[in-house]
Design goal:
The complex is a heterodimer of chains A (76) and B (134). Chain A is mostly helical and 76 residues long. Chain A has one domain. Chain A has two helices and no strands. Chain A starts with a helix and ends with a helix. By secondary structure, chain B is an all-alpha fold. Chain B has two domains: 30 residues; 102 residues, no CATH class. Chain B is 75% helix and 0% strand. Chain B is built from four helices and no strands. The longest helix of chain B is centred in the N-terminal third of the chain and has 26 residues. Classes of the chains: A mainly alpha (76), B mainly alpha (134). At the A-B interface, helix 1 and helix 2 of A face helix 2 and helix 3 of B.
Chain lengths: 76, 134
Amino acid sequence: MDPATILADVQLALSIGKVAMELAQDSAPFLTNAYNIAFGNKVLTEVERQQMRDDEARLRKAVDDVIAADDAAGDA
Amino acid sequence: MKRLILALTLIAFAAPLGGCFETFQAINGFAVTQGELDGARNAYDGTALPALAGYARLPRCAKGTAFSINNRCHDAAILKRFRTDDVSVADAFNKVQDAITSGNNSGAIAAWNTLQTALAAVKKIIADNNLTAI
């Protein structure tokens, strides 16, 4: 294996790791809630429910911003 | 007097029967509780929604290329369709919540069924485009 191939594999692994970390950060609060509701008989308070909605809105706004940027850029 | 006894007997039986009916609905999945909704919504928010956001964060695919493990990019058209399906899911969750808040169980059941259809569309777009590999 030549150094360039090794470097490319390392870069790919790092990019996948970065995405995985971001996914985990996005998922964690929701999945913690889902687990506690399913297995801990947790009942969400209205404050927690509002936090959930705020977190949803934050993620969706980020997606909408990308879609708007794609539209503005036209065909790739 | 007989009518009064009959009425009291009917009331005495009606209350437990009402409870039985609610239990029957729950067993058969015909009642939607706030806990079930919160659990389902958080499960969706913790799986499909981060996948959507993660896909959007990837750079845009060059023309004629598609997402793969070695070509990590997002297709604008797929992202838009994914988001459209996500809007349907979010609307359905909100409708179930509104029905539960207003005590409209039949409305909650109808909205829950709509939600299942919307979730199936999201699952399909994830599977069809290999987005589980995000």
